[in-house]
Amino acid sequence: YADYFVKYVQAYAAEGLPITAVHPQNEPDSDQKFPSCRWSGEQLRDFLRDYLAPAFQAAGLETELWLGTIERGDVRGDFNSFVLPTLADPKARAAIKGIGFQWAGKASIRQAQLAAPELELIQTENECGDGANTWEYAHYVFNLIRHFCDNGVSAYVYWNAVLEDGGISTWGWCQ
């Protein structure tokens, strides 16, 4: 799998499209309605430390490696279960540039900032909402952005801002 990432980065670079950062797994704790790839925090740590970082180094790639994107909050133990195994391992921690959090990462972002002040943090996926785009929802999203920024993120991704009006996700969520 690490070799695939190397080939991916190299193929895009050959087309003039440099890949500057890689997150090895989006939503590692989600069993989706489509093919999924679930990981434990220990598996992510081991993959980053023992396979991905050495493969990128051997290939001479300068692409940053990130942990994430972590989709759940601390209620489900995402900091302890998915972030802490990498941070607690000096070799794995040294392999990553930062950590990406989604939606409920709002419950873990402060812990990550305190535990790893040298790492960059980003919010990678805004909450979808109900598609109504009301003033109340705008206030809610403003407070989400503020919460993540107050807790050290350098980027906030409102990824579904340009969906078709009235669009419905495969989960039936109005977007």
Can you describe what's shown?
The protein is of the alpha/beta class. The chain is 40% helix and 14% strand. The chain has a five-stranded parallel sheet, covered by helices on one side. Helix 2 (41-58) links the parallel strand 1 (21-22) and strand 2. Helix 1 (2-14) packs across helix 2 (41-58) and helix 2 packs parallel to helix 3. The longest helix is centred in the N-terminal third of the chain and has 18 residues, at 41-58. 28% of the residues are buried.
Record the SSE blueprint.
Layout: H1 2-14, E1 21-22, H2 41-58, E2 64-70, H3 78-87, H4 90-95, E3 98-102, H5 109-115, E4 120-125, H6 135-150, E5 153-156
Parallel strand pairs: 1-2, 2-3, 3-4, 4-5
List keywords for this structure.
175 residues, 5 strands
Number of strands: 5
- Rg from alpha-carbon coordinates: 17 Å
Query: Which bin fits the share of residues in helices?
Result: 40-55%
Structural class: alpha/beta
User: Mean pLDDT across all residues, rounded?
Assistant: 88
Largest sheet: 5 strands, parallel
Shape descriptor reads globular
